[in-house]
Structure formats: C-alpha cells, structure tokens
Specification:
Layout lengths: L7 E7 L2 E12 L2 E10 L7 H13 L4 E8 L5 H16 L3 E5 L3 H9 L7 E3 L2 H7 L3
Parallel strand pairs: 3-4, 4-5, 5-6
Antiparallel strand pairs: 1-2, 2-3
Amino acid sequence: MPARQPFRIVLSPLDQGLGMLNFTTSDSGGVMIVAFDTVEEENLDWQFSQRDWLYKTIESREDGRFALDLTDVSYLASSEIGFLVTVKRRVDRRNGQLVLFGVAPYVLDIFRTMNLQKVLEIADTRGAALSRLKR
C-alpha cells in the first residue's frame, strides 16, 4: 500500500472561498491513519472514486484498526459528518476499530449536539488514539 493517498471532499463555503478536505494516509504499527486538512480549491467536483477507494481500503485491509486525524479541520458540514459515520459503519461491519483524534472544540460540539460522541470514539491526541488501538 502506498504511504500516502490523496482525497478531497467539498466543505461548505468558508470566509475566503470554498474549503476542501484533503487527506493523506499513513501507517503506524499496523494502524491506518487518515489525516485530514482543509485546503483552498477551485475544483468543486466530488471525488467519488477516491472516497470509494477509502471505503474499499477499509473493507479489504488486513488490519482493521483506523485512526482519523482531524487536527487541521475546524468545521464539518453535514455531508462530511455523514461521510465519517459511513466510515465508522464500514469499519464496524468488518469488526475493526476506529478512533478520531484532534477534534476541534466546535466540531466536538457538533458531535455532542448530534449525540455522535456515543457512536464515534474520540481521543485528544494521536498518541491516545494509537494507545486505544493497540492489540
């Protein structure tokens, strides 16, 4: 598996234009880490094939442990929250584990309002997330 794979999701309009979620993947002790960040983009097309690539990777990867790094994300629209819930369901379906970390206070408030903190496991830091995912 390549060390890093690009992926983009459209976010809602932000102050200076439209933000996109970009992600890269890496591995730490068998745990697949998906690190998101927000970038400015002019191309607003959804990258369904790349989203599907992530879903297929989750479903076919030998090690079912995943950590989502939201450190560089300060806002998520409902479609992105739906994407995270879908990722969680796919991980659960294969009896894997998923931990989010680096969740901004505003995003955490959204998760609490939607009662998602009961569905999504959330850690403060990368180290805490990886500790929860140890075998």
